[in-house]
Amino acid sequence: MNESAKSPEIKTVKDFVTFIRRELKPKGKIFTPFNVITLPIILLGLALIAIRLVKGLGAVTNLSQEFPWGIWIGFDVMVGVAFAGGAYILTFVVYILRNEKYHGVVRATVLNGFLAYVFYAGAIFLDLGRWWNIVNPIFGNKFGVNSVLFLVSWHFLLYMISLFIEFSPAVAEWLGFKRIRKILASLTVGAVIFGIALSTLHQSGLGALLMMAKDKIHPLWYTEFIPVFFFVSSIFAGLSMVIFEGTISHKVFADQIDPEHQQSFDRILMGLGKGCAGALFVYFFMKILLLIHGKQWALLATPMGTWYLVELIGFVLLPCVLFLHGVRYQNLTVIRMGAIVSMLGIIINRLNYSVIAYKWYVPLSQRYIPSWMEITITLAIILTEVWVFRWIANRMPVFRASPAWVTEESTVKKTVTIRKEVPKWKVSAM
Amino acid sequence: MDINRRSFLKVLGGGMAGAALGSSLLPGRPRAAEIAAAKQFSGVLVDTTRCVGCRSCEEACAAAHHMAILDINDQSVFDRPRNTTVSQWTVVNRYQTEKGEVFVKKQCMHCNQPGCVSACLVKAMQKREEGPVTWDTNCMGCRYCMPSCPFEIPKFEYQSSVPKIQKCNLCWERLRHGEKPACVEACPEQALFFATRRELIEEANKRIYQKPGDYIHHIYGEHEVGGTGYLYLSKVPFEQIGFRTDLGTTPYPEFTKGFLYSVPLVLLLWPAFLMGVNTLTKREDEKKRGGERP
């Protein structure tokens, strides 16, 4: 750990180039089981992407005039962005509420969020029929300001920048740029505040996209509160993802994490579980309230009604109970199970809006079912994201401690406060 | 209140002068002359009681937009209702109803406030002042217009690497030169009637009044989704001839309005609130230092 915490001495451009070239080389074994399985999928995905670009969307997707949006929107973008919600919630908790307990997982979460936006929101690029026009909403003179998608596209772009600023001190630490790091770190709180406002709007905006599909979405799912539901569900979706990703990362990158942090991670998981339970309960309560208010009892007796209840009971109420149980009995396994069930619930929910409860009246034979090529490309995108995440985590201080010079600058003033704070943490951890 | 002629005129004169001054100073407020001269949306009235299913409109449409010409004598196409396609902007369908066979022409409805136009983030879809809803090549191909259309009219070229959205454009290129849409001109039965929307509604009402037994007393498109450019008359209830009657009268852009109105509010108030909380949670030693924690 100490060896990697040493920063390079970059004085000239030549130093920079040699450093980057050295870092680009793989660290560790190349032929691990993970690499051997995932690399072919990524390569196959790339080939399919080439076919899609040359021959058009019809060549690889099962999209139709009846179902214009498939899993690249309903899963890659809508689920991916919901899962990336952990970044705005944790930065809110750490930088706005200043709950230091979660500081240790902020960097990994922000990096995860940033990459999720780059890759999953980037999946829009593949889904755009006329992708070379992707810059039109940003540059040019034809702004469709009345469009929810206009808002969402701008927010994606701005939020990606915010997340990068939030993560950038880690890049500076990796390169050993001391003064630049100081400047970048001073931008963090501003980026956090901006990022939270953007996230509130585009998480809900993804739901608002569907408002004009009023006649096409099953009445049990269609409500004028779709944007609110999307926002609230992004809270537990994001936190569940932090639990899920953190659990895996702390095993995979265990050698980088000091034992002290490993121990505090269990307490972090407990806290996240508590947050998930709260958000899930609010979400469940709102759904029930709307069900009663809408007086749509008769619809519950239909096949779609059963499916609605499966989602509501099995993937909202059940994970809520699991989280509560896990927190009550301090059982991390149950909390991790809760995270997985609530993540599955988000996948089901977003796919309901975009594919399953969308035009529920169309018979199965004419419905959209994703082709194996769409699924392969989706898998390839996810795996590439994991590869990039791993590459960064192995080089920059994401899980490992920042280089010594970062802490040296502030320890003198910090020692006093830290000692003062210890009892306070213990109380909040209960 | 005691008002005599003199004070009444004074108030009136003052008011008018004020109004004239006010309206001349305020930019963007239309004056009476402008309103009268403003173009009214044009549209087409389809009288399904007159249509005989000859498909001349389909042929004329294909010819006018350089699409593959179809064999219009082929009767087998009526076996099941068809949708418009990327190479067929209008289709005629046959429906068996309680009052016998009815032929219905289908194409873009050219809504007064189209969902597809408000969905488009690059203004590739536009509602033209003549009335047509048209598509342009600055489109990104996001296909958001497709789920946003209550009539599911925009069609996307999935098989092309340079795909377009294809839909009826009410022959906008002809309208600008004072011509009628090709389908209207081709109709041998006067089932299609092209005029401004106001005239269409007048004409439709006139037909219903003159022959009340021949029509149900409803003009489809007068109020549906806030009013459409294409209007329909029928002798049977509209759900029997392939129309959705559950769409309501709210213009589709209204459904996203509430959300869009909240955007500036959230962007203004949320950061202010967050900054406030951030300041409140600052600890004493940090305030003295004036900086953030690393």
Folded structure, characterized:
The complex is a heterodimer of chains A (430) and B (294). Chain A is mainly α and 430 residues long. In chain A, 72% of the residues lie in helices and 0% in strands. Chain A has 17 helices and no strands. Residues 1-5 and 412-430 of chain A have low confidence and may be disordered. Among the domains of chain B are: 38-113 and 169-241, Alpha-Beta Plaits, CATH 3.30.70; 116-166, Alpha-Beta Plaits. Chain B has helices at residues 5-25, 32-37, 56-64, 115-119, 145-148, 172-175, 182-186, 197-210, 254-280, 284-289, and strands at residues 42-47, 91-97, 100-106, 125-127, 133-135, 155-156, 165-166, 192-196, 230-233. Chain B has a three-stranded mixed sheet with strand order 8-1-9. At the A-B interface, α3, α5, α8, α10 and α17 of A face α4, α5, β6 and α9 of B.
In summary, what is this structure?
Chain A is an all-alpha fold. Helices cover 72% and strands 0% of the residues of chain A.
What are the segments of chain A in which pLDDT stays under 50 over at least 5 consecutive residues? 1-5, 412-430
Strand order of the largest sheet of chain B: 8-1-9
Average the pLDDT over all residues of chain A and give the rounded result: 89
- CATH class categorisation of the domain at 38-113 and 169-241 in chain B: Alpha Beta
Count of helical stretches of chain A: 17
CATH class wording of chain A: Mainly Alpha
- What is the alpha-carbon Rg of chain A in Å? 23 Å
Q: Helical region count of chain B?
A: 10
Give a count of the beta strands of chain A, DSSP E runs of length 2 or more.
0
What is the string of SSEs of chain B from the N terminus onward? HHEHEEHEEHEEHHEHEHH
The chain-level mean pLDDT of chain B equals 87
DSSP strand (E) fraction of chain B? 5-15%
